[in-house]
Amino acid sequence: MAERFISERNLKFLLYGVFDAESLTRHPYFEQYDRKMFDMVLKAATELAEGLLQPNCQEMDRNPPELAGDQVKVHPSVRAMMKEFGMGGWIGATVPEGMGGEQLPHLVADNCYFIFAAANYSACAYAVLSAGVIHLLESFGSKELIDIYVPKILSGEWQGTMALTEPEAGSSLADITTMAEPADEGYYKIQGQKILISAGDHDAVENVVHLMLAKIKGAPPGVKGISLFVVPKKRIDKDRKLVPNDVVTSGIFHKLGYRGCPIVQLSMGDKNDCRGYLVGEPHNGLKYMFQMMNEERIAVGMGATAIASAAYYASLDYCKKRRQGRKVSEKDPARPQIPIIEHADVKRMLLFQRAVIEGSLSLLMQCSKYVDLQKVSSGVEKEQYNLLLEILTPVAKTYPSEMGILSISQGLQCFGGSGYCDDYPLEQYYRDARIHPIHEGTTGIQGIDLLGRKVLMKNGKALKLYVEEVQQTIASANDIPELKPYAEALEKALERLQNVTKHLLEVASRESAEMFLADATLYLEFFAVISIAWQWLLQGIYVQKGLKNNPTDSEADFLQGKFYTLRFFFAYELPKIKGLEERLRNTDGLTVEMEPDHFSD
Amino acid sequence: MAERFISERNLKFLLYGVFDAESLTRHPYFEQYDRKMFDMVLKAATELAEGLLQPNCQEMDRNPPELAGDQVKVHPSVRAMMKEFGMGGWIGATVPEGMGGEQLPHLVADNCYFIFAAANYSACAYAVLSAGVIHLLESFGSKELIDIYVPKILSGEWQGTMALTEPEAGSSLADITTMAEPADEGYYKIQGQKILISAGDHDAVENVVHLMLAKIKGAPPGVKGISLFVVPKKRIDKDRKLVPNDVVTSGIFHKLGYRGCPIVQLSMGDKNDCRGYLVGEPHNGLKYMFQMMNEERIAVGMGATAIASAAYYASLDYCKKRRQGRKVSEKDPARPQIPIIEHADVKRMLLFQRAVIEGSLSLLMQCSKYVDLQKVSSGVEKEQYNLLLEILTPVAKTYPSEMGILSISQGLQCFGGSGYCDDYPLEQYYRDARIHPIHEGTTGIQGIDLLGRKVLMKNGKALKLYVEEVQQTIASANDIPELKPYAEALEKALERLQNVTKHLLEVASRESAEMFLADATLYLEFFAVISIAWQWLLQGIYVQKGLKNNPTDSEADFLQGKFYTLRFFFAYELPKIKGLEERLRNTDGLTVEMEPDHFSD
Q1: pLDDT at position B366
Q2: I need a labelling partner for A555 at 20 to 30 A (CA). Which of A132, A192, A315, B193 fits?
Q3: Which of A283, A317, A341 is the C-terminal boundary of a domain?
Q4: B337 lies in some domain
Q5: How many domains does chain B have?
Q6: Cβ pair A439:B417 closer than 8 A
Q7: Interchain CB contacts (distance < 8 Å): A and B
Q8: Residue of A518, A489, A510, A490 lying closest to A584 (CA atoms)
Q9: Least CB–CB distance from B572: residue in A349, A561, A583
Q10: pTM score, whole prediction
């Protein structure tokens, strides 16, 4: 039997309780669905995860992709997975029915991706990348591009990717040098190099379709000169046959983890025969790409949470079974050893994991719901959901990524020496998860995005809306006696957030942008801890409702456990904002003024 | 040329400046040494590290030990290393000359181990384990045992190990079941299993000598019934030949990192022919073993700091060379990209690493100096150094281990996607370092050791002595205007430490031991942050002296950089104690009262 990697009960608690997925079906766009159908979708996702994804997770890690000639060979199970992702409607889960998709709410579809990623993160990445490509073509691609590419990617026959990074342009996309020269026939000739492209080539599909950033010859410098192209590995010739498109896989990266999915280097136009097809208008490429990037950022947060979830359930299982030591107060060594889950410090390590995972998942579902509500609303309302998403995206990407690593590390620690050995899956999870603070924009980039862009955008409107959302939760929680102390703590924390933000905005107007953004990463951490506290308080409301609603014993245990975890977050994690606030208020410019030479010795 | 993995300048700043190694040579025990000789020793260590250890570091990781039949085969370079460790006097560095050692101060010898571990942690482990075995035999072994085993281990021909852990007894040593039955001939027949034994078998030596915990038949239960034995893989028969001693390597563990050194499972007495030789008195084994364990705990802290040092210099090098992006205030994308070391957030990541590494190294040297002073002193003074060592050992083991992981993670982050790939050494360091919070007593065990044993010992005398040491540094720093703000901050922090400790002792007397120790791990973290702040202030005194003493430009850069790092620690790291204090004062018993069932769902 497969090891447990998620909690179905927690998932449904969030989906139907906290985020009321059923309410979405009142909107015409989702009216074909009901709760029963959602349940069936989740069940199907779980079956795929348990039956195919999880059983190959370790196998794929131990037999990583290799480059044979110029073809990347991946684990044979990936072919079956691509088929399932396609035929099962998973790649097109949120794609409109008119385009061949399932038109599911993101709230439900993202939960399925969560299940997939918890079972096998690398496997899930193939599907999520393909889905992102379709969504982007749906938004900005011509009918012709859609007709050619969407059905094949949707079915899992072709792989979709995003191709941004170059040797000299990682965090600084302004500096890409891949060139596109217009040809008379309506396409562009592409020439350049891309590196670190996930799923950038593999033999489980017939073709790979890159959404690629490049500069049209003569374009303005910097980000304003970036355009977006579809660049397939194989293009369709006049006879409707697939022929090579001069995209060569010139290298493969050997990685710490995430080994089930290849990351490759691509070389385009070595023979001057690589064709790219413009998406949308010239020079607007980065703007378009941001749709996919934002979607992938949320997916990264989800992936990080998912791996942490698998690590948590593995460690929980171990802590229940493993007997070691006795209660501190037990002096008789002749008494039997106790399961380590009875030790306070072990409970602390488990609670830490649960607090991070269930708090993160809640925030991610909050984002998914905003995506859905944005889709079915219009005007001011639509803009509001959009702004809430904008401000929460760097948080939902980064908190799970950074804290997921620590969560998994605590899971590993629960195993002691066994956690360090590959008899247990923890060491793999520990390696897999380390990618998340890096890809789709590093933590440093996310910090600058939050403080330097999102907090300032539309004159602070996104932040204002966010504060209102949190205040609404505080108001509801204040009516529940068991939650009052936590509502008050969050209220104070929210005030701290507003005051620290005000202080930093004063720094921005008084001093340099450099000074303003020097500790943006810490600001993001500060903001994120408060956001997760918000999500715990929100969950608390439904916990208390549930406890008052005649729960079964097992439900009561779950809800009590959730309440302990809420208390844990407020008692162990929220206090961290104090130290962060002290630093954020101390704008001494230490890291601005220090010279590179001071690092020499 | 070898990559840089340590800072010689920093090492000498600490060794000769802060800790005044020369002063030790005034004691008769060390009078044969002078600074010039210390320098030669360090130079020889560096040559060995650069010439043999570091060039094989990656190789040993990629070709890990394997069990062939019942013999573990390690990388061929290990044989040369064992020879060098032996012939160069490194295994016997601190062993008295009368026993064939070098009689070096620990302060100097530990620095050599630091250099070795930074070059190749796995390699260093072989030598450190052998050294620990010799030290323990020196203290508690009979002349006969010493005569047989010490010369061979000293020369690197035989390997020494510590064999404690069993399948059902890891953190709970009270529960070991390996049995020793007295035989008439003066030895014991050993029967049992040991797991996770570092360097427990390999083909780079002729023989492996285990210091093994076992229970003599009929011994009292628990830790009071544990005895210590020498159990060699091969024993010397009547003809003075090495013959098998019925110690079989029954398994090898495949590990996340630390792959250059085997960790094995041993089976003793399958043929009822395994002989063990008692060390010291029966039933006192754990007490004896603690000498070696404490020594190895300091060595673990040193190893963690060393790997973090190698990671830091690799990331520093990368940050100086890698060009990416422009200053936040630079709007012209046509300007060239800048080295990433010029970005404030990158400087923050580098400063974090440096603060952890140089702070940890300073604390470790502080401990080494206590070891030396304890050796050359007597009476009350000796006891004082001993108590200071006792209270600092869990701190010096844990802070570098836990923070070393985060430090290396930040180093990896500096590389972006490249850090995740094995073209750079960061991914290996990230894997290697994860062992440290686990072996030689997990972080949880260290927390309980600090709060439940060391803080209480001799009626709080160890803590009192520690506080006095810190206060002495504060007093000296208070006389230096540049350090006054930091001296004041540390003074306040020290008061917090005393008050929190008092609060916890009240909990101990008012409530259960369980409640008292529930957050011992957090108490250790709290204690450790303050200890590292102490070491930074102590370094600050010598920084300011150095700056006033006509430094060269390059010395001034180093010292200014150190002062920035001191400021960084006080501005970014010390504030973390606020959140920790809030939790430590909130003794709500959350993790004590929560039931295992609350984790179900």
Answers
A1: 98
A2: A315
A3: A283
A4: no
A5: 3
A6: yes
A7: 304
A8: A518
A9: A583
A10: 0.98
